[in-house]
Amino acid sequence: MKFALLAATALLAAGCAAIMPTAKQHFDLEAHRGGRGLAPENTLAAFDNAIDLGVTTLELDIGLTADGVVVISHDTSLNPDHTRDASGAWLAPRSGASIRSLTLAQLQTYDVGRLNPSSNYGKQFALQQPRDGERIPTLASLFERVQARGANAATVRFNIETKIDPNKPGETAAPEPMVRALLAEIDKAKMAGRVTVQSFDWRTLALVGQLAPQLPRAYLTTPRTLQDPRWTAGLALSNFASVPQMVKAASANGTGPVIWSPAYADLSPAVIKEAQKLGMTVLPWTVNQRADMQRLMDWGADGIITDYPDMLRDLMRERGLALPPPGKAAP
Length: 331
Description:
- The chain has helices spanning about 1-20, 45-55, 105, 120-125, 140-150, 175-190, 200-210, 225, 245-250, 270-275, 290-300, 310-320, and strands spanning about 30, 55-65, 70, 155-160, 195-200, 215-220, 260, 280, 305.
- The protein has about 325 residues and is an alpha/beta fold.
- Keywords: Signal.
């Protein structure tokens, strides 16, 4: 009787395990632009908030100023949707100067600490908490901020996107000076072990593979960029059986880990498995709805880039995934 009870218990446990999703213990929780759903995008305030919350990775974008400083900005020009001048006035639509045309000193006169409430963009992020006085930060200042936090931010990684459009070469620095400047900042801060370089412009990733082959590289994709060889460093999708195979070919010149980072709507369980069998991890962007997060997790994605890291963290907790440690509030 005792044996039968034990057997039944074992069968019940096995059945429950069979219907439970497999828990990944190293799921990459990435705060997109520092978590712009919660704090002003790509600011030190946003990055501090994400570290306090507890994320695996800070996702961010970089450009070069006129005097060659690496700064953190998604936009290649000052964005009127979240930029005010020294007098506190919102920039007029389409009036923002390019990041590349301004020195760091000039750039620091603009306030990017809140959203323009009258803009369509501003209305998308009603939960974002303003932080007046925030400036477009340098990459060096972010590295310094994280290092100053010591042990409570010691595991945080950085996923850094080079913002370059091959169809608009005049808007930004060219790939080589941008990559060299980025690698110099990474080396200066001794952060090579904590950085991934990502880009839609695969020319920059080819340069990273050449100049710093050990660094992880993330190949960002959309259907539009995949159809234009100017984005894919000359590769044509028609020459490959699938996007993962194309990414695999593009990444052949480096030795570090390879990540495929597609728009999340372009994924399916089969293509995720294919990419993983080819040795790469799959990190979709930008996923802000709970149902989409759940579906991608069920399909086996290795992580998610989101504007709402708090929502993704809750889902990870519900699924029994290992959570990145929260940091103590920055002084």
